[in-house]
Write a structure and sequence with these properties.
8-stranded parallel β-sheet, glucosamine-1-phosphate N-acetyltransferase activity, 7-stranded mixed β-sheet, alpha/beta, NTP_transferase_dom, UDP N-Acetylglucosamine Acyltransferase, domain 1, nucleotidyltransferase, 2 domains, Bifunctional sugar-1-phosphate nucleotidylyltransferase/acetyltransferase, single chain, 39 strands, acyltransferase, Spore Coat Polysaccharide Biosynthesis Protein SpsA, Chain A
Length: 401
């Protein structure tokens, strides 16, 4: 059977992290999300894997993935239906949304046993943010309602399908939605009127990585579910490691450092001296955390540096960022209300009382910079020394107080 992973989305809600990487390359611990999907498909015996990508990301995908095929989605037509139209299969295929995370291959393998068309159904607490599934008494799909104000249930579209090639005839009958997209879910509603689409309900961990703080959440789940500790690094005397910790090869941890798990420290990273790594910290690889630095519940990506006298809390920092000495990221409002973040022009509550900053790739801050809660700093931005960053900073912008 063929499998297709949809990965052509622009990832606008995940900006600024997606300024420099496709959203399916968001890391969970040190591994990009899409590599989990590929590994699961291999474990289920599927080798014929095609990834639907945007033309602008073609070079990035080809550089970072091998042993898979690519097909580009037309730029003039958006949506999951357009993604499927970019593919071709004669019999049946497995289709996965690239931005959802599940912790094992079990549910994917279960789809391969289904004789009928099938869709994954997941129960969530906030169904109005998703496509809600309506089923009949036999547990088969009758309709998908996108983001309803009054959801008929909390069972939503989990982003995995097994479909026959008949779906293409229903796509041909599907009109572009009000959002200006060709929606696969609309085609499935048409198909469900004439053919059986079994809803496979799943009650395990499932996560839609759609907003920047979700990167923290899904890594936090992964750390909570570490089965063991591992220390392959070079640890100097007078270092304390408490709780579960994964410390990969060629890590240097210098004297006076205190590490409180669960944490993940990727290969060739350098910590200390006298640093404090607090629970739920993920350093992907080649990350430098220097003298007298404190990191708490944050994800810091490849090659970024927090060299000295800085604090990073509840934040996501993309690759090759350098924070000047004394950079402080505030993560709690004075009124202790939930931190809000600008998402596609709207102020959205994160649901978190503690939330720091989201910093895109290749950013540089000067010394003694303060960044307020919920701030986004675009890739390649420069922050002037002593600045208090109290608003979002655009891609490549020079911010001066």
């Amino acid at each position: 059977m063929k499998a297709f992973i949809f990965a052509a989305g622009a990832g606008e809600r995940l900006e600024p992290i997606t300024h420099t990487r496709p959203k399916v390359f968001v890391p969970i611990l040190s591994k990009p999300l899409i590599k989990y999907h590929i590994e699961y498909l291999h474990k289920c015996g599927i080798k014929d894997i095609t990834i639907v990508i945007s033309p602008k990301h073609k070079e990035y995908f080809e550089k970072h993935l091998s042993n898979v095929s690519f097909v580009t989605q037309q730029e003039d037509l958006k949506g999951t239906g357009a993604a499927l139209k970019s593919t071709k299969f004669d019999d049946e295929a497995l289709i996965i949304y690239g931005d959802v995370f599940i912790p094992s291959e079990d549910i994917i393998c279960k789809f391969l046993l289904q004789k009928d068309n099938a869709i994954l159904g997941v129960k969530v607490e906030n169904p109005k943010e998703y496509g809600v599934l309506v089923t009949n008494n036999e547990g088969n799909l009758t309709e998908i309602i996108e983001k309803p104000e009054n959801p008929p249930s909390n069972l939503i579209n989990g982003g995995i399908y097994k479909l026959s090639s008949d779906i293409f005839s229903y796509l041909d009958k599907t009109k572009v939605s009000e959002r200006g997209e060709l929606e696969l879910t609309d085609a499935l509603t048409l198909m469900a009127k004439e053919r059986t689409i079994k809803v496979i309900q799943y009650e395990g961990f499932w996560y839609d990585i759609g907003r920047p703080w979700n990167i923290i959440d899904v890594n936090k789940w992964a750390l909570d579910n570490l089965e063991f500790s591992k220390n392959l690094g070079n640890v100097e005397d007078n270092v304390k490691i408490k709780g579960k910790a994964i410390i990969e090869e060629d890590v240097e941890i210098k004297s006076g450092t205190y590490i409180e798990g669960p944490v993940y420290i990727g290969r060739k990273s350098e910590i200390g001296p006298n640093s404090y790594i607090r629970p739920y910290t993920v350093l992907t690889e080649k990350v430098k955390v220097g003298a007298s630095v404190e990191i708490k519940e944050s994800v810091i990506m490849e090659g970024s540096k927090v060299p000295h006298l800085s604090y990073v809390g509840d934040s996501v920092i993309a690759e090759d960022v350098n924070l000047g000495a004394g950079t402080l990221i505030a993560n709690l409002r004075f009124d202790e209300k939930d931190v809000k973040v600008n998402i596609k022009g709207k102020r959205v509550s994160s649901g978190r009382k503690k939330l720091g900053a989201f910093i895109g790739g290749h950013v540089r801050t000067g010394i003694n910079v303060t960044i307020l809660p919920g701030i986004k700093i675009g890739a390649y931005a420069r922050i002037y020394p002593g600045a208090v960053v109290n608003r979002d900073v655009g891609y490549g912008e020079f911010f001066k107080a």
